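Hi R.,

Here are the chain sequences for the assembly we discussed:
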Amino acid sequence: MTTAPTGAPEQGAPAASRSARIEALAFVGLLVVLSIAMLVVTSSIREPAGSTNGLGARVVPYAVCGLMLVSSLVVLVQQLRGRFGSADEGEDVDLEHGTAWLPTGIVVLSFLSLIITIPMLGWPLGVTILFAGAALALGAKRWWAAVLAGLAIGVVTQVVFGELLGLSLPITGALTSWIGL
Amino acid sequence: MDTLTLLLEGFATALQPIYLLYALLGVMLGTAVGVLPGIGPAMTVALLLPITYALEPTAAFIVFAGIYYGGMYGGSTTSILLNTPGESASIVTALEGNKMARAGRGAAALATAAIGSFVAGTIATVLLTLLAPTIARLAVGLGPADYFALMVIAFLTVGALLGDSLWRGMVSLSLGLFIGLIGVDTLTGQSRFTFGVPQLGDGIDVVIVAVGLFALGEALYVGSRLRNGEIPLIPITRGWRTWMRRSDWARSWRPWLRGTAIGFPIGTIPAGGADVATFLSYASERSLAKPEYKQQFGRGAIEGVAGPEAANNAAAAGVLVPLLTLGIPTSATAAIIISAFQSYGLQPGPRLFDTQPALVWALIASLYIGNILLLVLNLPLVGMWVKLLQIPRPYLYAGILAFAGLGAYAANFTVFDIGVILVLGVLGFFMRRQGFPIAPLVVGAILGPMAEEQLRKAMQIGQGDPAYLVHSPFAIVAYGLMILIVVLALWLKRRRARYEAQLPPVDTVAIAALDEEIESHQPHPQQDRGRLSTQITPIQRRSADPPEGPGTGSDG
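And here is the predicted structure of the full complex:
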């Protein structure tokens, strides 16, 4: 990383970059599309005949989707006029540098891998892969330390939640059932 | 005194060794996560919801209560000692506390925060004990229309007040309400928004919503913008007995009491929670301060730490009043605790005091015990927690992901939920990037289905006439108050934003000199007490070739 200009910290909202503006408009635009689509879906919810007084199954969905449409339209107009939201701050969050998309993508993939690894390899190994993948993507230095720490968390959660608290976490999966624990 | 006997019975339960252990576990976890940057109490309670599948209710709620209180204590340690640019200006406590720490008075700031939290927490818990049974007794008479009014208040205040802008909060709230609608409608048996997916028929589990948005969303967001390089920590060195000098006590006790008086009522009414309370306390301390201390505000005034910290904790206890007596959550953490009640088949509300007196009173008793444990944990042992700040961030966030996976899978033991949680996590990720508040979404998703049920009950009783909703005097007063609260709180928020925008950066040497000068005028000057070394110890992160051997880095 290059050295950041750490002179006088500039106060006030920094002008949103072009890509950030496009992203903001796209996100809110998607919400507008979603609310219109859901209004259409709502109209196809079946109302059983013969429900007398009282509200049917459609009324609240109409209200909720309507609120979503109105509020996202207002935010969209605000953004077109240049009023963008400011990203969340946090102790570990660095807003001065850009977004690290590649590591974020790897973290998402590591999490997604649980869908395959839990049935195939079991809980402890699945967590090991998730933990190691995420830690390395986020900048852990030693790969073996990440793997060992992941394995430790996998085994400890298996023992505490699976054995002591009685949640049915699979120790092994389809590919590792030969281990026979 | 009926309440007193019930409370004593609660103590008899909560003081059993096993429950004391659970309370200790809760406050330790709560403090740890409060200290850890990036993990709030909402996320922790969400991540620990799986224990409700295994523990009995009393034990689980004692743990949750400990986490809830502990998170409030731990947070102040982080904001006082962690010196990261940007964040510290956004919270008033951090504003003064961090300045004090930079001027070498971090120990005094930590002590006044911890003792103030204890004083406020204890007084507020006493108020909770006295008020809750009375409110519960009154609330038994409320009808569905009244409940619907209360829930609308909770929606609007949470949506409008927790975040930068009202409309962004409304977007978040409506998304949450929408998520709450997914599934089979209980009244008519019709599927709504399930798109033919059978797993969505039961709706999306609240655990999934909370873990996805708080844990996964936060981890993804922080991970995408992880701060590089050193974390400048302000060290604390001397023994804790000498932290507060005589003048610090003299200047702190009134702000503690005032902060409690401000925080508790604000926590009780759904008015945006602790944020509003801390700012009100800060503003009143600033205007009430003696002229010679007033110039210290913005440069490390101890009143500016003592008051808001007390207000913060008192508000946290205040939030429990509507939670326990009405079943109305006014913060994200409270909403998640409600979902924990629901997973036991319990419905928080006025009847809880009749149906589950043992549980409720053990919970309240554990709040008193938790406060004492927390004072001990936070004063002499604060050095231990500071070490937590040094956990390498890649491991910290990878660990959060592992527990998020556990929460997702343990909800229903299907990997389908892993996919759902990932979708919600990505949604939370983009919402954080775009400045949409998360809390309204969670409150909407949890409270939405309950509100719809009450609304439809009310309409059935009122035979389809919408006027029935404003039929009772209670509902009319409630809607009137709601408008008042929202307007007042929005005005307060604007004031706070304006105040924070005009803060000039201050030199730490000047702060220390000012402090020295004020102290020298005291009747018993103790310049040396409560001083610390001001040198900043950098912590190496991501530096090339760490020189130390193995052994660091393997942590949970």
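Residues 1-14 of chain A have pLDDT under 50 and may be disordered. Chain A is about 55% helix and 0% strand.

Let me know if anything looks off.

Best,
T.
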